[in-house]
Amino acid sequence: MYTKAHLGNSNAMFELSGYYLYGIYVPESHQKAYNWLKKANALGLSDADATLHYCFRMKDGVLSLSEQFSDTFSVVRNLKLKAEQGDSNAMFLLGISKIEDNDVSDLQYKIGLRYIKSAAALNHPDALFILGIQYLFGKRIQRNTKKGFSLVNKAAYLNSLSALDFLIKFYFDHNDLHKVLPLIEKAVSFEEYKNKEAIGILADSYMQGYIVTKNINKGIELYIRAAELGNADSQYNLALIYETGRFGIEKNINKAIYWYEKAVDQNDALATTNLGMILFHSAEEADQKKGFELLNKAYELGDKKALCNIGIAYKRGIGTVKDAQKAIEYYERAYQEGINDAAYNLYLLYSDGTALEPDNEKADYWKQIYDNLENQ
After folding, report:
1. Any signal peptide, and if so, which residues (predicted)?
2. Which of 45, 58, 138, 254 has the fewest beta carbons closer than 10 A?
3. Closest to 346 measured CA to CA, from 329, 366, 323
4. Residue 35 · residue 45 · CB < 8 Å
5. How far apart are the C-alpha atoms of 127 and 119, rounded to whole Å?
């Protein structure tokens, strides 16, 4: 490097300045680091100019580290010294800061890539993953999909959560659950794994015995983990299980309401309907009104079946005023949306006499429609 610098290679001058700045291979000398940067800058190397302004301050002919740089100098120096001594994690940390900065110069990227390659050669899992991504997508280096995928797989084997997550998403996008689920099983063994959607998918598989061996307790445990991370589907599934007692789980309406509320906060339409119906059937008037509001919200969120339930509310005057015409309006809207039960509800409305005078002709009309729909 020293020879290249003396022969006028500005990149070599820049790297040599780093050796002197941090005392790598040579005694630490900020003056020599400064001098080599000045020479590189004179040759037009933009990185040298930026480093001069960031790292150094010259006042009254006295050279010192700049105030902004001096705070991080010792940290970076220790990392660089550890990296030169073969510490793969130090190499990774030094490399990743440059590799993931889209605005970094080509020279800084190459320096970062060298650190990442060195760490990867020592089987640092995350360095293998980052290097693999560089090759997969051709980020400033020639694209090599085969090599990139091989590196990512090796990183996953060595327990890189980033690599595991990448492969999980890749195989899921390709509808290959036989490859996805073993990867998720490996990932969830780490407490720090936070992919809530993936955890929820594995929970579904345990509950159904799909690909993996059926294990209700494990499925519930993973549902809870995903739900606590904010996965709305898992929150809904837990609530439904506690509400209905599915899979042999003891019914617990309070737990059901708790998880429905979590899912409702994320605008889950089905959870909004189900919570609305729970409150709708409450003996408390305030709950009934809240239930009616939730049913309307559920429809706005896309649950068309909520229209029937809104119609029932108007028919019975629960949570809102009793209004037979409104009930008819919502039942008919539900029917237009393809909800078969709406036809049966209209048959009941015209026949049972609870909301308006019986109308046998209309009752027979809707009963026939419902029977035809059921027989299709």
Report:
1. none
2. 254
3. 366
4. no
5. 6
* pTM recorded for the entire structure: 0.78
pLDDT at 139: 82
Beta-carbon contacts of 284 under 8 Å, excluding residues fewer than 6 positions away, are: none
- Among residues 221, 294, 266, the alpha carbon closest in space to that of 310 is found at 294
CA distances from 79 to 17, 23, 75, 303, 326 (A): 17, 12, 6, 55, 72
Residue 14 lies in a domain: yes
What are the DSSP calls for 53-113, one per residue?
Answer: HHHEEEETTEEEE-HHHHHHHHHHHHHHHHHHTT-HHHHHHHHHHHHT-TTS-HHHHHHHH
Alpha helices in 265-305 (DSSP H): 269-280, 285-300
State pLDDT tens for residues 185-210. 999 999 999 999 999 999 999 999 99
For position 311, what pLDDT does the model report?
Answer: 95
Number of domains in the chain: 1
The Cβ of residue 148 has, within 10 Å, a number of other Cβ atoms equal to: 20
Does residue 45 form part of some domain?
yes
Which helix (DSSP H) or strand (DSSP E) does residue 228 occupy? helix 216-228
Residue 38 lies in a domain: yes
- Give the pair of three-digit tokens for residue 362: 């209309």
- Structure confidence at residue 2 (pLDDT): 93
Which portions of the chain are predicted below pLDDT 70? none
- What domain range is 50 assigned to? 2-73
28 within a domain of the structure (yes/no): yes
Whole-number Å distance between alpha carbons of 195 and 229: 8
